[in-house]
Amino acid sequence: MRSSSSTSVRLSSPSVCLHAPRAGLVDAAVEHLMIRKDFQAAFDTCEKGLESLINSDEQEEICSRHGELKAALCIVGIQALAELNQWRDVLPWVVQQYGKTDKIPGKIIQMCILLHTKVAEQAEVQEVVQTWLHCSSSMSQSSYSSVAELYVLHVLLPLGQTTKALELLEDEVGRVAFTEEQRQTALAIVENHCSKKQSPLHLRPESVCMEAETRGRVITPQGSLVQRLNSVVRLLYRGFSTVSTNIRSRCLRRAFLLFFLLYLLLIRMDPALPSAFPWILRLYGLFQQMWNAMFAPYYRASS
Predict the structure, then answer these.
(1) Which residues does 135 contact at the CB level (< 8 Å), separation at least 6?
(2) Which of 83, 117, 147, 216 lies 20 to 30 Å from 156, alpha-carbon distance?
(3) By CB neighbour count within 10 A (0-12 exposed, 13-18 middle, 19+ buried), where does 194 fall?
(4) What value does the mean pLDDT of the chain take?
């Protein structure tokens, strides 16, 4: 009786879920992906592990470790397909592995959104994500709000579907995924995006000023003279600004060279040595040039 009871307890305990060989497949797939850069071998290893999970019995499927291994294999498989430039096969492959959309974990949905955003093909993932968000079983997942946020910001808005984004934030999905403050912030972002889309082309300030001057301009000799004077003043301003920039840059270069020579003379070598004489002469010349550049105009003005 004792042996039979212990056997029944051992069969019903989740600790009997021995997934060590399949966990080894996850490690092997990661090694192929990250170390050997053999992406096809990594994907084949993931499929092998997923097939072994499909053939597992009900006792193993109940174990939480089963779902973790399946998600890990799918994540590595998604990365391998992305490296193989087979991103179009990612979403059908994930749906095939889980059978139904509502059974897909939220972190895998996030990966699919980010992958299709990277290749600018958000329309490919829109239907699956929308179905997943409206499933009641998905709303209990911890990553539900993150998926909803990614769906609004990286799928609906880039596709220009602001109306659907507003409807999503107003219905049950928005109220479950976000707090009231987060929902109001998201609504403000969507409305701002919508107003930018409906506004005319954004012009630079210079072009706006030129357009305003063109519209309000009166063709008279005085008007043409004023325009010429304005253009001359603009050219002079640009010239003076360029000259002042060059002067400042020269002064900075000379100051840097001066400090560098001081560093060589005082720290790196002995000023009493004969080899330091050329550097001392160069330093004296720089002092004289900087003195003349800075104070010679004042002496000339005073004299």
Answers:
(1) 101, 102
(2) 83
(3) middle
(4) 76
Altogether, the residues listed in the chain come to a count of 303
- Tokens 């002496």, residue? 299
* 85-120 core/surface letters (b: 16 or more CB in 10 A; e: else): eebeebbebbeebeeebbebbbebbbbbbebbbeee
CA distance 150 to 125: 12
Token reading at 34: 């990250």
pTM metric for this prediction: 0.60
Give the chain as a 3 state SS string. CHHHHHHHHHHHCHHHCCCHHHHHHHHHHHHHHHHCCCHHHHHHHHHHHHHHHHCCCHHHHHCHHHHHHHHHHHHHHHHHHHHCCCHHHHHHHHHHHHCCHHHCCHHHHHHHHHHHHHCCCCHHHHHHHHHHHCCCCHHHCCCHHHHHHHHHHHHHCCCCCHHHHHHHHHCHHHHHHCCHHHHHHHHHHHHHHHHHHHCCCCCCHHHHHHHHHHHHCCCCHHHHHHHHHHHHHHHHHHHHHHHHHHHHHHHHHHHHHHHHHHHHHHHHCCCCCHHHHHHHHHHHHHHHHHHHHHHHHHHHHHC
Distance CA 135, CA 158 (A): 24
Contact 92, 44 (CB under 8 A): no
Q: Residue 7 burial (CB < 10 Å; 0-12/13-18/19+)? A: exposed
For residue 3, what pLDDT band results from cuts at 50, 70 and 90?
very low
Taking only the tens place, the pLDDT of each residue in 168-211 is 999 999 999 999 999 999 999 999 988 887 765 444 444 444 44
Q: Which amino acid type is present at position 237?
A: Y
Separation of alpha carbons 278 and 262, rounded Å: 13
Q: How far apart are the first and last CA of the chain?
A: 121
